[in-house]
Write a structure and sequence with these properties.
Blueprint (H helix, E strand, L loop, with lengths): L6 H11 L12 H10 L12 H9 L13 H12 L21 H7 L1 H9 L8 H4 L1 H4 L8
C-alpha cells in the first residue's frame, strides 16, 4: 500500500498537537475563564485556530459579537484577550486587506476540511463553525484529547 503525501493533513496535525506559544497564558485561570465565558454561548475555540490580531478584533468588538452583545467586564475582557493572543503580535501584516474573524475562512481550516465537504455542508445547510456537529463534543474536549 502506498501512502500519499498530504501537506494539509500534516499541517493540521502539527497545528493541533503543537504546544501554545506562551504556555502560562499571562495569568492562571485565563483558559478556564475563556472556556466559561465563550463556551456559555458557543463551542470554545482554541487560541491556535486564529492569529492573535483576529482574536484581538473579536474581543475588542464583543458588544457586537456576530449580532449579539457578548460584552464582559474590563478585567475579564483583558484576561481573555491575554489568553487568546498568548503573547503573539496583535498587529496584522501591512498587506492584509481584511482581518479574518471566521475560523471557517482560515486557510488551514479550508485545506483540512476540503472543497467537497465545504460544498456539501453548504448544500445541506450545515453550520461549519460548530465543530461538535461533526467531530463530537468528547473528541473536541481536553478530556477527550481532541482539538484543544
Amino acid at each position: 500500500m502506498k501512502i500519499q503525501h498530504c501537506p494539509s493533513l500534516f499541517f493540521f496535525v502539527f497545528l493541533i498537537l503543537s504546544p501554545p506559544a506562551h504556555a502560562n497564558h499571562a495569568q492562571p485561570g485565563n483558559m478556564e475563564l475563556t472556556e466559561k465565558e465563550c463556551g456559555a454561548c458557543h463551542y470554545y475555540y482554541s487560541p491556535k485556530f486564529m492569529p492573535a490580531y483576529s482574536w484581538k478584533l473579536i474581543v475588542d468588538t464583543l458588544s457586537d459579537h456576530f449580532g449579539d452583545d457578548a460584552s464582559l467586564d474590563e478585567a475579564s475582557t483583558q484576561r481573555i484577550l491575554a489568553y487568546l493572543t498568548q503573547g503573539r503580535s496583535t498587529v496584522p501584516p501591512a498587506n492584509l486587506k481584511k482581518i479574518p474573524i471566521h475560523i471557517t475562512n482560515m486557510v488551514w481550516w479550508r485545506r483540512a476540511h476540503g472543497t467537497k465537504f465545504i460544498e456539501k455542508a453548504a448544500q445541506d445547510k450545515i453550520t461549519l463553525s460548530n465543530c461538535a456537529n461533526c467531530h463530537g463534543l468528547w473528541k473536541l474536549s481536553p478530556v477527550g484529547g481532541g482539538l484543544m
